[in-house]
Amino acid sequence: MIFDTKLALLFLIGTLTGASARTECINQCGGIAAAYENNDKLYRCANEDKICNSYVVSVFSQVRVFPNVCNGILLTPKIVLTAASCISAGANGQTTSPDSTKVSTAYINSTTAGPKVYDVDKMISHESYVAGSSVNDLALIFLKKEIPNVDTVKLYAGNPADNAIARIFGYTRQGETRAVGFTSLGLSLIPEDERCVANSYEWKPKENKLICTSSNMATAACIFNQGAPLVTVNPSRRLVYGLLSAYNGTNNSNYVDYFVNLNSQMTWITKNSGLNASSISATSGF
């Protein structure tokens, strides 16, 4: 028998990091071996500048004629935390129906059924959310069945230090000059990781803001759909601190994105999801 060192190494990586999630990511990479980035629960496809993430999902909803594509994170393989603006539209915040909403482990832009598209059982939007605002822009989506071969992620139950740094992950918006697909963006304190050329980003966690030093919306952090997670950067653990809101604005010619602080919403999340705070949150992320 010929011992294949490469296959053995891939098997070992899969064993140590969760073989099922890695297998799913290899499928998303077109069957190409994927290198695991342990702290992020990310996989990078071999020979491609493509990232597979195993806890961020793509959410599609349609309110009348208004299609909406956004992000969400898996609290469990069956429960998605997303933005309320993802499943509502219009000034009155009209909510879409479960039948008009789908969740996928890949980018999705329709309700077309497929092997990676999952049906929704019910949805709960924050009762105090007002359309056009970032306040309480939070919702839960309950799937009819579990998504197999995925990781889940914990929320950060605390407040970040003044010098804390983070990254934002998610599926980007569809546009003429912007690629559609999963990507990541480093925020201001790690400029070598920034994906936005010639721009710097400032994270203001106490104000729930992300500020890009550009007035060009196409290059601001809002290339991400709402519901994209703001993830802490730590050598030992990554935790989700906030979710990007659909609400944005300008500040002294800089483009501003707002996000929802999940620690401040922990009571709402646990009450409406039926999950214990200890099972979905941690305090050692920063």
TrEMBL record:
Annotated signal sequence range: 1-21
Residue ranges of domain Peptidase S1 in the record: 55-274
UniProt superkingdom: Eukaryota
Family annotation (InterPro entries): Peptidase_S1, Peptidase_S1_PA, Peptidase_S1_PA_chymotrypsin, Peptidase_S1A, Trypsin_dom
Keyword rRNA-binding annotated: no
SUPFAM superfamilies, alphabetized: Trypsin-like serine proteases
GO biological process: one example: proteolysis
Keyword tags: Disulfide bond, Signal
Gene Ontology MF term list: serine-type endopeptidase activity
Family: Belongs to the peptidase S1 family.
Protein name: Peptidase S1 domain-containing protein
Species the sequence originates in: Smittium megazygosporum
